[in-house]
Amino acid sequence: MINYEIKLPLTKETILSFITEYDIFKYYIPSMKDINVSFKSELREDNHPSCRVFYTNNNKLKYKDFGIEGTLNCFQYVMIKYNISYKEALKKIIQDFNLDLIDSDIAYFTLQLSKKPVKVNWKTNKELTKILVKKVKFRKKDIEYWNQYNITQDWLEKAHISPITAFYIKTKTSERYIGSSYLSYCYDFGKIDNTKIRKIYQPFNNKVKFIGNVTKDIIQGYHLLPRNGNLLIITSSLKDVGTLFCNTNTFAIAPNSEVSFIQPLELYKLKDRFRNIVIWYDNDKCGILNAKKFSDIYKLDYIYIPEKFKDKDPSDFVLKYGTKELNLLLNYLLETKNIKHD
Hints:
Dna Topoisomerase Vi A Subunit, Chain: A, domain 2; 5-stranded antiparallel beta sheet; 4-stranded parallel beta sheet
């Protein structure tokens, strides 16, 4: 064995060599009792225990709030809870856990390296959750629900959104059949390794609004885009994508959640196709924090609904104020960024 002293950048991996993801979640969520046990959100008003920390298929711990889309790892949770950057979150964890790491961008370690080469297998075999659904034709109640946002059946069909009455979920460790008494919809995103990629949306289920096996590289609404154009909005949900197109004739896409984003290579291609790309996330703590973060990283403008309206997203806004007011709002927000809407 040969001793080397090397410098490693301070990352989540270095922290997780001292403490676990469970340690971090447990410390910053006092109301969390155990894995897969529901508790009330500490990031928003929550009348029902609608949050939990769970293991993913690749054995990572994630925080899930069933009232919103997406999941958070332990570091993202700290960022949102304290409204701080990623680097600040790492330093806070170091301080709070009194870790023997230097509070700087560089951490120092002594490693023992063997002269014998190590064989590394880079192949991963993550098994995707399987989701089967029972689809039905659009019923009167489905049309009425989407018409609140002026989203048409024609757009829904083009977006591959279908009403369902039941769904079946099979993971590596469990199987569940769920007959839905709520309005429920299936978003279809094609296949990966012969597994259908889907998201279930239950708008009136306060405990579990979204269930899915969508991967981070899926871009909601991408297949509906023209070859090129003047304006593209990156918003927080497929429903907002439909709201913007059907009410303002504006093309939009959405990542899987606000805490993720469009992959850099795809964003580069989109910048070549659209003259202006603007982020419009929800007007809440999580939405604004992530809009600012991705705006800084990718040099994009971001907008949000002014606080006085008390509405967090375009869908909520059009439901309360209508199509004309949404167009006026969008034009006003774009003018603040010196962007003209065709």
